[in-house]
Amino acid sequence: MNINKQQIDKKFEEHIKELGTALFKYIYSLVKHKQLAEDLQQDVLLSAYLAFHSFEERASFKSWIFKIATNRCRDYWRKEKGNQRFWQEGVFDYVSTIEMTIEPEEYILEKYKKEEVLHKIHELPGKYREPLLLFYFHQCTITEISQEFEIPMSTVKTRMRRAKKRLQPKIDM
């Protein structure tokens, strides 16, 4: 039994040495925060280690551990969404009173700028417009947009970057 555990530990360690950097980069691409990515990577490694005995080699180790990483990131986002809702409810009245202290001219100018940006976004082709609207106006994550349109996250990011590039010369702010 002890030899078997040592063999399992060694095999797991070999996989991690091979994929450790790629795993971190993947998690970082999802969360865009170095310390959070490091924490999530540690959580993923611990979960994978504890479940490694049940790993069936029907799929590659890489796809298995990346799936664990995706699920951990989803768990984090769900938790974070709940925390945001809590804080938004608590400060909503305070924010609305701050908005009341803004001069009417400033408020109208800000509102006009937002409407102008929205109008310019609607002039973009659909494949560029939809990700921007979902991300900035409906608070969807890159992952959710990717799943909605059944396209890779990298494609969503590219389309958003290209849309911003197309919008930049049209909006003078």
Topology:
Blueprint: H1 2-31, H2 34-51, H3 61-101, H4 104-122, H5 126-137, H6 142-149, H7 153-167
Description:
- With 173 residues, the protein is an all-alpha fold.
- It folds into 2 domains: 2-76, RNA polymerase sigma factor, region 2, helix turn helix motif (Rna Polymerase Sigma Factor, Chain: A); 102-170, Arc Repressor Mutant, subunit A (Orthogonal Bundle).
- It has helices at residues 2-31, 34-51, 61-101, 104-122, 126-137, 142-149, 153-167.
- The radius of gyration is 22 Å and the shape is elongated.
- The protein is built from 7 helices and no strands.
- Helices cover 83% and strands 0% of the residues.
- Residues 17-81 form the RNA polymerase sigma-70 region domain.
- This is RNA polymerase sigma factor.
- Residues 115-167 form the RNA polymerase sigma factor 70 region 4 type domain.
- It comes from Bacillus aquiflavi.
- InterPro entries: RNA_pol_sigma-70-like, RNA_pol_sigma-70_dom, RNA_pol_sigma70_r2, RNA_pol_sigma70_r4_t2, RNA_pol_sigma_r2, RNA_pol_sigma_r3/r4-like, WH-like_DNA-bd_sf.
